[in-house]
């Protein structure tokens, strides 16, 4: 019987750098949550950015299905990275994160810093960032998987993904 080959490479500085580049450049992400009513996976496209301490963040409305889902169960998955304009979409790098969502209340003293960071990424959000139903969410990263292109997979931990 043939031994299975582990497709995950040893994580190196090049992989860490690519993952951090993806995080820094991203303005959107696919967010996976568990839908409370059905227990089924639910994926939506969200606006994305990094907070003042380099943590992934988003701004969500209470009206969104994913906001209700994260209030019920904070576990989430984020897919970051877009296919390029040319070539096979599966050869372009992408990063999948396992994370836990943390909502920030309006009266939280860190809101001003989160707001400033968010508007730095998404200046058009100034139109709605202060609406009462919108809340900042930071994602605490548990780990992730970087697919750097064909046969370039790396398992990453939260320290590998720290952007400062």
Automatic annotation (TrEMBL):
* Record SUPFAM superfamilies: FMN-binding split barrel (SSF50475)
Q: Residues in domain CREG-like beta-barrel?
A: 13-152
Task: Extract the InterPro entries matched here.
Answer: CREG_beta-barrel, HutZ, Split_barrel_FMN-bd
Looking up Pfam families in the UniProt record yields: CREG_beta-barrel (PF13883)
Q: Which PANTHER family does the record cross-reference, listed alphabetically? A: CELLULAR REPRESSOR OF E1A-STIMULATED GENES, ISOFORM A (PTHR13343:SF17), CREG1 PROTEIN (PTHR13343)
The protein's name is Pyridoxamine 5'-phosphate oxidase family protein
High-level lineage: Bacteria, Pseudomonadati, Pseudomonadota, Alphaproteobacteria, Rhodobacterales
């Amino acid at each position: 019987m043939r031994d299975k080959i582990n497709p995950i490479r040893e994580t190196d500085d090049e992989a860490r750098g690519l993952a951090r580049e993806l995080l820094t450049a991203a303005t959107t992400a696919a967010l996976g949550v568990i839908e409370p009513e059905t227990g089924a996976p639910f994926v939506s496209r969200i606006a994305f950015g990094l907070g003042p301490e380099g943590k992934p963040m988003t701004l969500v409305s209470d009206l969104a299905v994913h906001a209700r889902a994260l209030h019920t169960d904070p576990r989430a998955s984020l897919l970051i990275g877009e296919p390029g304009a040319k070539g096979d979409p599966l050869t372009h790098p992408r990063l999948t994160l396992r994370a836990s969502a943390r909502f920030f209340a309006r009266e939280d003293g860190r809101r001003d810093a989160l707001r400033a960071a968010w508007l730095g990424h998404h200046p058009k959000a100034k139109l709605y960032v202060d609406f009462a139903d919108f809340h900042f969410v930071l994602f605490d990263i548990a780990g992730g998987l970087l697919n750097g292109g064909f046969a370039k997979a790396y398992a990453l931990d939260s320290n590998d993904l720290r952007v400062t």
